[in-house]
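Re: that chain you flagged

S.,

Sorry for the slow reply, it's been a week of failed gels. I finally had a moment to sit down with the sequence you sent. For the record, here it is as I used it:
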Amino acid sequence: MSKQIFLKKETIMNMNNVKVNETHMCVLRKVENENRVKVDYVELKFKHQDQLEELKRMADNDNRSVLDMQDYVKGSALRRLSQDFDFCSCLSDSYQWIPCMQPVSFADYQKEIDEYDERGDKAGKEAYARDQRQKYYNRIAYRVLPAMLEDLSNDLYKDPSVLAYSHRRVGWASPAFKLNDDIKVVYLTNFGYGSSSYFFLQIYYKGIGILPYSQWIHYRKACASDIIRYTRRYHLDNQEWMKTMSFTADIYNSAVSDPASFAEKNILNEVEEMVSGLENIQSATSYRAQESFFNPNTIIITGDDMVRFKGEKISGALGFLDQLQTLAPITDKVGFYIKRIMNCNFAVVAELEKAISSKKKYLETILASIEKEQPKWDELSSPNSEYNKMRDEMRDAIAEEEEFKEKSWSTISDERDKRFAKEHPEYAAFKTKYDAEYNVYYDLCAKRDKAQSFIEEVQLYLDNIEEHKNYMVENNIAA
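Prediction finished late last night. Pasting the structure tokens below so you have them in one place:
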């Protein structure tokens, strides 16, 4: 049996010393002779620290060159650091892979040295040589952490007590592993892909995904298609491995210690929280919610936004109905939850229809005002276009003048304004009249667009409810 890797006692005593994937790796480990798991932290150590220190001494020695350092690396265990590494310096950035180090060219280096010698610039040559040594050392030293992570990952993989361990790889998802016959876990990481990066944990209980249904009602912006992808979502930070491993351990240990209530606590409570939240939203006139998972700011939703929010959350919950049916093997409450969701939807229909009717009446007044204002706008917009054309032509002509060829566009525009005002003294009064009309006309247009957007959005929620009105009958779900 492979040797187990255990955490030193002093590290356990001071968690402030633990920086995941920097000083230690976070590990999910079976507890020996017990039916439970725990979170452990294994220290990262570089096996060739003495050679790295020697390389640092060479970097600080003016009697050495970067070529000497390169030869030393080639002949030592440090040569491995010049290979490529699957490593994310920043989990949320893109293009994180570390490529193989390109060797320092003897010809290029010597050419630079010779040029300093030809100029008789001894100080410049020494500064250049020192800079090259330091840069080479820094490039090698930067690769120590990826190498330590790779080496320890290989050791942990062979350790039979280790179920999972943290990483900083690009993309990558751990293979699913079973904690027991009932619980399966997958760590889904898509590190190093910019805005597409994510950090998810999936846990399945008897083949059923444990999902964070309550997020649907707690966040203003929540994506239903994301919620059914994970049990928990984490921020793109290495320290988050502590949370995900601890949550996994808690889930397993609670399933073992209290199997009778496990489904109720970890699955059904999430569903109940979401459904109760929907019922509260349906009857509320305002609602407090966190903006999103990544934005902790709390907002108060009222007015038209509350109507939109009701429609989005209540009709959007219909997208969870098929997923809820997968809970049938562990509970007889599926029909109960689905009926409550359906009742919320039926109850909100009248409010959504009333909101559309009211907004249509408002829209009629806005359209009438636009129709009344249209002749004034048309009368001014055409000459304004002509004035703008003349102003552009004058600006371009000034830019060609010898005096202004090297001037900034801001200076050229200022000169244009002076000349234009002199040649067209009537423009100032026209511009004042045009700007006033512009503000009136475009304010009306903005109100029109906002009203139309509201009507279209709320109608989509009503259409979704209509499409699902017979869901329980069609799926043989008892009322």
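What I noticed first: The CA atoms of residues 40 and 426 lie 80 Å apart.

Talk soon,
D.
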